[in-house]
Every structure is written in structure tokens, then in C-alpha cells.
Amino acid sequence: NSWWINKMRTRQRLEYSNKLILAPMVRVGTLPMRLLALEMGADIVYTEELIDLKLIKSIRRPNHALGTVDFVDPSDGTVVFRTCAQETSQLVLQMGTSDAERALAVGKLLQRDISGLDINMGCPKEFSIKGGMGAALLAEPDKAAQILSTLCSNLEIPVTCKIRILPDVADTIALVQKLAATGIAAIGIHARTRDERPQHQPHPDVLREVAQSVTIPVIANGGSRHMHCYDDLLKFQLECGAASVMVARAAQLNVSIFRRDGLLPMDEIITKYLRLCVDYDNAPHNAKYCVQSILRELQETPRGKLFLQCQTLQQICEIWQLGDYCRRRQLELKEQGNVGRAEVQP
Ligand code: FNR
Fold first, then answer.
1. In contact, 135 and 193? CB cutoff 8 Å
2. 274/327 Cα distance (integer angstroms)
3. What is each CA distance from 39 to 86, 88, 271, 276, in whole angstroms?
């Protein structure tokens, strides 16, 4: 294994300043959307949150037919995480964990295929909190710091975490300073508290104070309800006094928000996205979910209703005139004995 450790050491280390970043999003941040975000101008893309217990069981399997590396659950053959060389230098994997040693074992398994490892410390969902993961770690700063310092000391790639602000600014600063002291390369901060929801205004003023209190890059997140174009991303970053900016919802709706030359029309985005789904044999339910979140209220139109009935990638592709493209590729993959299967949710 030493040859790839050496290779990794000579690889350029991921930098987190002045970057436009695709935020981690469950079900959205799979390979096709990440590749499209990069094509549109994102500098760094995060995977959806993947749970350590799921990853630790997985087996690394290069998929020659697709040109990908798959991490496969050996119990049922499902692909837990699929990546390819085209994204490696800009890819951060986000992990859900509550255990330093387990997180490290996963980090070692994955570090050859990613450029950064991020720990989710902001997710308020019951699943995360019950497992001591996500926002539960905000209430356990010693444990959070122990996880990060274990990873920073033992991995070749940079480690980061993504948190939410605390109700009190001084407490937030103390927490961020404690986490920064573990050796993390940057910190993503969602400018809302654990109990605040998307309809609540974010707090860029708090991020500004926090960013001034540490030397590591702060990645601002949480303002994308009010972001409608590329310039809005930079405006939010500036407002927060942050080194970089990370976008979720606005990119879920139209990933060309990363495009300096302006938004592309919805149908062009869907077509580009579906082509990538076909190229990388993405699970149909995952493709459907992402297209649904682009279409939104247009699901009520006749075309939208037809789309909602689709169950296969082929059927979805027909609607966007990619039927032949999909058929050809699926035939080609069949001939090459593609072993890929649907991605599963953590
Ligand atoms: C999220 N978010 C999220 N956060 C995280 O740390 N890990 C994750 O896996 C997810 N998953 C996820 C899925 C979807 C569909 C959405 C909309 C959001 C939260 C996200 O990364 C971000 O912090 C918030 O959405 C706020 O940023 P925006 O949406 O204002 O840009």
C-alpha cells in the first residue's frame, strides 16, 4: 500500500480559501450532481453524509466498465459510495460519526480516493442525534475535538467539520477555537442554530465575529434562500467575512448557480444531469429525487405528471429526449458486465 501513500503525499493538498463549495446534501450529492457542480464552476464538492458504520463494512471495488471506484456493501452488493478520478482532487467526503477510532478506520479506507474528510456536527435530525452524531457533538465539544484530533494526526488528507452556530456568540467562538486547535484545515459553519429552520434568517453577523476569532478558513453556509445567482454567493461570503462559501438549496434547485456567466435554463440542467446519471449508471430513484427537486411546482404540469410515473432511468430520459442515449449506454454497460447497483441511503 505504500505506493499510493507516497502518491497521496505528493498530491496537491486541498486548499479551502476562496472556494465555491457544493454543500453536503443527502440524496442530492451523489456522483452525477457533484460532477455537474464541478462543470458549472464549483471548486469543491462534498458528498452526501455517509455514516461510518455503513462505510466501515464496505469494500473498495474499482468498476472498470464505468471508470469509477465503488465502495460496496458486501452483504447485498449495493454501492454505498461511488466516485471517479475526475472529481478526486476536489472531493470532500462527509461522514456521520460519534466514534474517533471508527472514523479513523473509515478515513484510512477512503483517503486514497478523496481529497478531504469532513465530519458532520450540525445535523439536527433524530437519526443523527440518537446516534450521538451530527448536532449532538455540538453539546460534547471534548468528544468532537477528540474525533477531529485523532483524524488530523493519523490521516494524510485534510480534515474539516461542519457545525451550526450556538445560541450564544461567545460560546460559538469558544467552540470554534477549540475545534480549530485540533488541526482541522477549515470549518464549515451553517449560520443558524440547531433549532432554527430554513425559514429562519441566517446570522451572517455571528459568522463575521467567529471568522475574526480564528486563523483557519471559515466556510460560510446558510444563506442560499436568498441566493439567485453567482454574485449572491460572493455577497453572502463577504457579508460573513468568510474565506469561502458553501451552497445547498440554491444548488439543489439550479446547480448552475456556480456559473460565473449566469444561470442555465432548467431543462438544460436536467439534460446535463441525466446524461451523467446514464454515464455513471446512477440509481433511478436517486435521479428521480434530484430531478423532482429541480422541477418543484412544475411537477403539476402534464410533463411533470408523466415524469412522476417514471420508474426507470430509461423512462425519465425519454422525457428529456435522451432515450437513445440511455439505451445505447445501458447496452454497452451490459456487454462490459457492469457490476454497479443502486446507491443506497445511509
Ligand atoms: C442538507 N444539509 C445537510 N448538511 C450536512 O451537513 N449533511 C448532509 O448530508 C445534509 N443533507 C442535506 C440534504 C438536503 C436536501 C438539504 C436541503 C440540506 C444541510 C445543508 O448542507 C446546509 O447546511 C443547509 O441547507 C443550509 O444551506 P443553504 O441551503 O441555505 O445553502
1. no
2. 13
3. 11, 14, 14, 11
| Stretch (H or E) spanning 71 | strand 68-72
Listed by start position, the domains of the chain span: 2-258, 266-335
Confidence of residue 197 (pLDDT cuts 50, 70, 90): very high
> CA-CA distance, 179 to 97, in Å (whole number)?
16
Best CA proximity match to 224, nearest among 188, 244, 253, 195: 253
Beta bridge partners of 219: 188, 244
**pLDDT, tens digit, for every residue of 7-41?**
777 889 999 999 999 999 999 999 999 999 999 99
**Which stretch of DSSP H or E encloses residue 83?**
strand 79-83
Confidence of residue 137 (pLDDT cuts 50, 70, 90): very high
Q: What is the pLDDT of residues 247-271, one digit of tens each?
A: 999 999 999 999 999 999 999 999 9
Q: How far apart, in whole angstroms, are the C-alpha atoms of residue 268 and residue 266?
A: 5
Q: Is 290 a catalytic residue?
A: no
Residue 121, classed as helix, strand or coil, is strand
Shortest-distance atom of ligand 1 to CA 225: 30
Q: Ligand 1 centroid vs 25 CA: distance in angstroms?
A: 5
Q: Does domain 2-258 have CATH number 3.40.50.300?
A: no
Closest protein CA for atom 25 of ligand 1: 248
